[in-house]
Amino acid sequence: MRTNRLLPLAAAAALLLSACGGGESVDTGGGGGGSGGEGGTLVAAVAAQPDQLDPHQTTAYPSFQVLENVYDTLVVPNAEDLTMEPSLAESWETSEDGLTWTFTLREGVTFHDGSEFDSADVVYSYRRIIDEELQNSYRFATVTGVEAPDPRTVVLTLSQPTPNLLERIGAFKGMAILPENAAEDIDLVTEANGTGPFRLESSDASSTVLTAYEDHWGGAPSVGGVEFRYITEPAAALTALQNGEVQWTDNVPPQQIESLADDDSVELQTTPSVDYWYLSMNYARPPFDNRDVRRAISLAVDREAVAEAAWFGAAQANQTAIPEDSFFHLDYAPFERDVDQARQLLSQAGVQTPLTMGLMVTDEFPETVTAAQVIASQLEEIGVTVEIETLDFATWLDRQGQGDFDAFYLGWLGNLDPAAYYQEQHQTDGPNNYQGYSNPQVDQLLQQGAVETDEDARKQLYDQAAQIIVDDVSYLYLYNPDVVQAWAPGLQGYRIRADKAIDFATVELP
Question: What's the CATH number where 333 sits?
Fold first, then answer.
């Protein structure tokens, strides 16, 4: 979960859990129309607390739910089709050889502390990520220079053509532009100073509160502020929405999606996502370093049953990560459930059963717990005993980072380009390759795909890489879920997005 923007979403994120069972009703201050942030406070029920607020350090989706509204990037995905459009950069040009990108910056932009935005802030932000080798430094793999010839111009020099450069610098707020020397001026873990439509007011174990930034370059938000309230249990989040205690949530019980479609007490919307969920095994822990063992486990998993258990029809089983409505989708599904073949592969690998496999999940994403129970039942048939380890997300991420696991189950969110689905997760020593996968052929294909400018040729490269990744079971891909969100009837101006970015700038309360 993007994060993972893993939750990666991708991608993933450390966070501390604070359950909230409803609480007192919130006065939203009346109607939501008008300008100047005078439309009351929108209360949003989310599943978890941000692990931290430094956009260049976190990979947590709960953090980016907040940061989406606080920071800006040079370019940003269009809410309609996720193509890149201007944000802090109002335009850009590319040299004929594709190695020089020149961005013209927007005028009249200020940070929340009132300081003016200019090219020095972009250079600082990008150099911070690159020089300190922060979470998203891989996104600058082909960038050899970041220069500011004048206050309104930023020039990126590349070592190779990079067809997805705009996605690399604008896909999510992990690429946010901070004011020059921000890390020295404030504690970015707990404080924020962005150019976005809302400024950070407070963040603690119960909620994160934002207030409208009246001087936002795109105009002041319609609401006066946003309170992100952490309600871990989906049923409790839905009840809070129906009772009027909150006005928006993305924590909807999957088993109630169908019935809520006809429920007048909420406005429910779904859309296919660009996310994927997966299981991955630790190559540093025998016998999971054995390809036959991983393939046996993959053959024993019924992905349709896992998707149904996790999302009750609001997910599509997929063995190759990229959803079927994408140009880059690969229709490849070699692992039809076959218990006998799975047992044979385990025997061939010399594995004595019962084999015990720990599987890390987190109750802060409840579908992982439910799905893990189904997977455990399926693997039991081939002599694999799954010990489900249900952890808080902070512990989950810490153990993932230390390699302290047999296997884990989570998702990567907000993927826009094929490189986002495969490159950093499966290239040798990739920043998100926690499983320890290494295949020189995959490395070569991913490197070629990253710089190939012809879209058809690029797809062929990623198809080849994806097929090997699936065959090797670097990730055991499971399904693509829908984005499911609900809000109070009469709430206007909000748009559900396939990348799960939560943007409240144009929302008007009932």
Answer: 3.10.105.10
Spatial CA neighbour of 15 closest among 391, 392, 409, 365: 392
For residues 440-446, give the mean pLDDT: 98
Tokens of 82: 């996720």
* pLDDT of the residue at 38: 61
Domain count, the chain: 2
d(Cα 8, Cα 74) in Å, to the nearest integer? 23
User: How high is the pLDDT of residue 92?
Assistant: 98
Written as one letter, the residue type at 235 is A
User: Per the structure block, which two tokens stand in for 385?
Assistant: 């005993």
What would the mean pLDDT of 311-334 be, rounded to a whole number? 95
Average pLDDT of the segment spanning 124-141: 95
Picking from 158, 185, 212, the residue at the C-terminal end of a domain is: 185
Assess whether pLDDT exceeds 60 at residue 35: no
Same domain, 455 and 316: yes
37 in any annotated domain: no
User: What is the predicted pLDDT for the residue at 269?
Assistant: 94
In a domain, 213, yes or no: no
The position carrying tokens 């989406």 is 68
Instruction: Read off the pLDDT of each residue in 321-335 and give the average, rounded to a whole number.
Output: 96
Domain that holds residue 124: 75-185
Cβ-contact 467, 331 below 8 angstroms: no
Give the separation between CA 382 and CA 231, rounded to whole angstroms: 38
**Could you say which DSSP state residue 322 is in?**
S
pLDDT > 90 in the chain, percent: 86
Q: Are strands 384-391 and 355-362 parallel, antiparallel or unpaired?
A: parallel
Whether the CA torsion 17, 431, 103, 115 is positive or negative: it is: positive
* Residues linked to residue 211 through DSSP beta bridges, in sequence order: 199, 225
Tokens encoding 25: 């009703």
Q: Of the candidates 185, 208, 229, which is a domain's last residue?
A: 185
Give the rounded percent of residues in the chain with a pLDDT score beyond 70: 93
CATH of the domain at 162: 3.90.76.10
Same domain, 289 and 420: yes
**Structural domain includes residue 364:** yes
DSSP of 354-388: SEEEEEEEETTSHHHHHHHHHHHHHHHTTTEEEEE
Residue 443 clears pLDDT 80, i.e. is over it: yes
Distance CA 135, CA 110 (A): 26
What is the rounded average pLDDT of the residues 483-509? 96
Is residue 495 within 8 Å of residue 79, measured between CB atoms? yes
pLDDT tens sequence across 418-433: 999 999 999 999 989 9
| Alpha carbon distance 498, 495 (integer Å) | 10
